[in-house]
Design goal:
single chain; alpha+beta; NADH Oxidase; four-stranded antiparallel sheet; 4 strands
Length: 171
């Protein structure tokens, strides 16, 4: 799929077919994550693959009962790894660069999933401490995004976007 088609086809999907994702597609997504740019190439993020029904159900509760998390066959949790970023960038790495790295990696995963005819939805509303406990993340890692991925069982229309004239400012 051509890049601009991928961007145009990406939608936030909350209804997934109950079928597993082929291992080669999962590996392609993970490989794409690894290709994401990062501050100083430190790759100051960690990705947790959540496939177990019990763990996905726990994520539902940690994310305010967003039950579609349990219906996705694969859920990726992206954590900012503050310790990796701090080694080179100190406080700025800890407070910002690791978060940027994790969000860029998540965006690459979303686009890769779309290119593979899978779908996803970015989840940012969750109890960070509960998610850390579910995935077993150490103290210096902080969940910043949850990404359920699966085959879409819905086809929502394109939602209206803010006009570029409101968002882009020439200086």
């Amino acid at each position: 799929m051509e890049f601009f088609q991928v961007v145009e086809r990406r939608r936030s999907i909350r209804l997934f077919e109950q079928r597993p994702i082929e291992p080669d597609k999962v590996q392609r997504i993970l490989g794409t994550i690894q290709s994401a740019p990062s501050a100083g190439n430190l790759q100051s993020y960690e990705v947790y693959l959540v496939r177990g029904a019990q763990e996905r159900a726990s994520l539902v509760r940690a994310a305010g009962d967003q039950d579609f998390l349990a219906r996705a066959p694969l859920v990726l949790v992206f954590c900012a790894h503050a310790g990796r970023a701090a080694t080179k960038y100190g406080a700025r790495g800890t407070e910002l660069y690791c978060v940027q790295d994790a969000t860029i990696a998540c965006t690459f995963a979303m686009l890769a999933a779309t290119a593979l005819e899978l779908s996803s939805v970015w989840v940012g509303a969750f109890n960070e401490e509960a998610v850390k406990q579910i995935i077993g993340a150490p103290r210096d890692q902080h969940p910043v995004a949850i990404l359920p991925i699966g085959y879409p069982a819905e086809t929502p229309s394109l939602r209206e976007r803010r006009p570029l004239t409101d968002a882009v400012h020439e200086v």
